[in-house]
Here is the input.
Amino acid sequence: MSMFGRLKLIGAMRLLLMLLAICSLLFFMIVSTFSKTRTFLIEAQTTAATIRFVGNSNIWMIPNAAICRLKAQPDLTQEETNDLCDRRFYDVEKQDGLVAAWRDGMTVKITVSQRDELVIGVENDVMPSFQDGTKIILSPEAWREAGALTFAAQVTIGTPIGNGEINFLSGGRWEAREAGFTTSMLRSNVTEVIKTGELVRGGTATVWSGESPAETFGHITSGSSLGGDYMDIVALSRPGDVELHLGYFGTNKPTVVRPDLIDAAISNPLLLALAIILSILASASQFYGDVRDRKGAVKSG
Here is the structure.
């Protein structure tokens, strides 16, 4: 083959590699955009969380608890106490074997008291048995005996912090996981962790889908087994086009975490392998071209 033919062949190879790289990138962008399914996993240590139950499968078995119901009228003849349920404002009932069957749409705010009690505060009146303002209090022993409390719900972990607030997010971490054609190509049922981060003390964390919080599945356990006076919450969002909203003190709008194509590309081993192969081929083509050019220069000289 003549020198001109060889140079032409090398130029064609380089052009082919460039077109292959561009097509691969476009293919990755298309399938990443239209075939992905994302979830967020949150692990947090907190003394405050708000839960809005989804569906009618949220049933908590509580061995014993104190149920505090607001009085129709305050009874100021009662002596003031430092209890969580001041008897001037609450009727207190001790109940063993409580079955709390939370209805769809019911909202509770869960906190941990300074005495390590789990406090479940009802914030709407969907259930006649637990009117708005009702508190369900579990002693540390009752909480440990109750074990894990599971939920399918819209969850906000933490509460907006302010002066004097004693219940807030202590810390934790989150993961964005993605499954789809690009992560499962040549592998079946593979989910990749494409982005991670830490939860900031005093912040809030909520997974959103569209214009409303996303449904998450998770559980609440006592942190006392690890020497902490908090609750451990693990929540995994339903797969979909979801994003994580992180709130911080002093900001009006949350920070939105939505992994992009760069995050997906960096975490995709198949695309990284393809990029390495294309780089090797391009380098080999360049080296071969340089060698041919030098040989041609020597012969012509």
Q: What stands out?
A: The chain has a mean pLDDT of 81.
